[in-house]
Amino acid sequence: MRVLLIAGEYPPHMFGGGATFMYNLSHGLADLGVKVTVIAHSLSKTISRNTFVESDKNGNLRIVWVTIPSYTYPRHVVFQLYAKSLIQSLSSRHDIVHINTGLYYPFLRPVFANLRKPVIVTIHGDPITVYTTALRLNSSPLSKIYGALHMLESSNALRYELSELIPVFVSKHLRETLSRVFKISEPSAIIYNGIDLAVLQKALETPPKTRYFELLVKAKAQGYKLLVYPARLYPIKNHLLLITALSKLIRKDKKLLLVLVGPSLVKSFIERVSNKLHVESNVVLTGRLPYDETIRLMSLADLIPFPSLYEACPITVIEALWLNKKVLALDLPSFRELCHRNLIIAKNAKEYIEHLEFILYSNTYPEEISMENDELRKFSLIYMVQNYLKLYDKALSDNL
């Protein structure tokens, strides 16, 4: 079997969880002997349309990099323009074409429509829920306009993908939510995001690349409690709740450190709020870090706080649970599906702050909110890849 993965984003040129997903899937398939080609973008300061190929050591995986200008936006549109002819050519040489949600629009749809082979699309989220959630937050009129345009574009993409392609949902609730609005084609599948445990272990053994690991080791030795939140600094990730909680907790204990790992879309806002609440010395903004470094920082944490207001299947939380870290989250359908004894769910912001204090200083949590089930197998890479292979086989047999 030959599989073409149209990734767009792919490490190291990544901006979200979709890139991590494509990286894990491509390596997982290749390890099982599947011939995999990934088409992804490489960022450049020029307008050149060069392509170059990188082959994996085992020979089953190759990445075709399409160079696009780093200063252009939106990047996914430019990627389609630059890669369209390449995608059309390579699609004919593969048995399965697999894309990430949203990448078809608006230039790739004619390519997929003319293919006489299965096209799989992985759906990573619900833009309607994201937008309506974001509307409840304080944001500028310009941000709301941009959000509305993005929602319309994403909804248009979903309408096509869910009815014309073979959709895969990363959680049960995502399928249920989208089926209320869109027609869902069959076959479809629910396959959770999976974590490569070998990569996770290797990350823990990799020497630190930045000063932050040593900073946290030193702080821990001085008796600090460490909260590490790996998420892009974006309003829907709800960093403000953590800053507010921190301002209350340090009245009792000054030795608290909140480490925010991620690209800084609202860095200046976080800094202003931290200064206003007098917690600036207790907040560390690292910006984007390499994967290995992020995992190492998470391994030092006393707790992984995750107050995000929307998640479809959060890879970071799954990584934290595999690291045997306690995670405190708000009550979202995706977290209920995880159902792990180390995942603590708070019903609202007030309860979140109460649970945060209880967990940090009692080193446990109330019996009534503990989880019995701690089954993580369905969130492993091998389980995810095996399920995709079953879907590929079914799609190919149905296509005959």
Q: In terms of topology, how is this protein built?
A:
Elements: E1 2-8, H1 17-31, E2 35-44, E3 51-55, E4 61-69, H2 75-91, E5 96-100, H3 109-113, E6 119-123, H4 127-135, H5 141-164, E7 166-169, H6 172-179, E8 189-190, H7 197-205, H8 212-221, E9 225-230, H9 239-249, E10 256-261, H10 267-276, E11 283-287, H11 291-300, E12 304-306, H12 315-322, E13 327-330, H13 333-338, E14 343-346, H14 349-362, H15 381-399
Parallel strand pairs: 1-2, 1-5, 2-4, 5-6, 6-7, 7-8, 9-10, 10-11, 12-13, 13-14
Antiparallel strand pairs: 3-4
Helix pairs in contact: 1-15, 4-5, 7-11, 8-11, 9-14
Describe the model:
With 400 residues, the chain is an alpha/beta fold. It folds into two domains: 2-194 and 380-399, Glycogen Phosphorylase B (Rossmann fold, 3-Layer(aba) Sandwich), CATH 3.40.50.2000; 198-375, Rossmann fold (3-Layer(aba) Sandwich). 44% of the residues lie in helices and 19% in strands. The protein is built from 15 helices and 14 strands. The chain has helices at residues 17-31, 75-91, 109-113, 127-135, 141-164, 172-179, 197-205, 212-221, 239-249, 267-276, 291-300, 315-322, 333-338, 349-362, 381-399; strands at residues 2-8, 35-44, 51-55, 61-69, 96-100, 119-123, 166-169, 189-190, 225-230, 256-261, 283-287, 304-306, 327-330, 343-346. The mean pLDDT is 89.
